[in-house]
């Protein structure tokens, strides 16, 4: 009785809030009432992340509109039905965790699947997919909702445990496996609507999770087990270019866990069928190009780069089967200009490092590109550019005077910056003797200009910069002293070299006789 009164009160509150412009977040759509959701009703009518919603048609939202507290979350749902993919998990609610458990008390499910046959389990799993799952749901701490989810998880976990057993696939049978694979093929890969760019605040992507993840996660795991242990033409027919293309389009999912699951499944497919390697590369490259041209948002870009890095490492023949320079010019180098450079820097650097080893021309090409697009105001990006210059210095086969002067010019420019983070990064590079070893032939020309810039920041307001500057100046003085000693030793070394060459020449003549 109390629960019914509470639900009536919530619904009345919902009606009263509809006229308030504060809650007019997204256009009205047919939706399930909160009372129905709390009672565990189907959420099929709720607009979901896997429907073909045109994200560009949604009205603009302020960043503060995304609910971050329980009250904001309830008000948002009560006011208008939001695109569920855009609702982050509130910290003080009880979402379903990756293991399929809730932080709140749960009913015991022991024996729930004990009397079900494998065929019945697969049939019920299929019904779950057709009725409620693959539909992004709200995070609701309702006992009924949790109980329904727990029962559904129990079905998939039972199937997962059977497949993991020795001879588990033989126990299930080819026909049942065929049913499960077709279920996966029909329901696992769905077109996703794009997450609107307004939810990417400057260079921050909101953390967005899905309540249906436990079931989806188990399905991915089962599919990977089947690919690795089930040798059948059926899999070869299913794991084709169309399936890989659809699977990689799922990188648009705002849930990081689903992106990682897509990556792991793709690795298994490529290992199973090497012919899918160029298909996977083409799909990932197109996905990155769509981001560069502004057709898709940043969501999934970091995962796509990590996947490319892993594919290059695991399948080294890939680098020789594609046009590397075209790939670098049209995709990789353009990503250095991304406002999310900090998020993607590690996988981007990993790809560049691999390409530099395969193509000797690319380090100098990339270096010139960085100089041409040097950031003037973005301190984070400047520090990343400086870090990449150090990497390129290790990969250059031959360094001429023009290149050396350019490198030190931008380091000196960074030392003169008004941003203390950029100065600290430049000082860190200047404090590394190993870095100078790549430019030994031109140190006498470069060091005086560097010393002049160091003297200008010797009395900087930042104590850490003052301390680092003194360390660098001391190290540079030692470097000059050792360089002078090397110059003094050159005549002696030249005499020794000529004597050594003469001795070896005499030895060769004696052996010829």
TrEMBL record:
Molecular function GO labels: protein phosphatase regulator activity
InterPro entries (alphabetical): ARM-like, ARM-type_fold, PP2A_B56
Domain of life: Eukaryota
Cellular component terms per the entry's GO annotation: protein phosphatase type 2A complex
GO biological process, one term: signal transduction
Name of the protein described by the UniProt record: Phosphoprotein phosphatase
Organismal lineage: Eukaryota, Metamonada, Parabasalia, Tritrichomonadida, Tritrichomonadidae
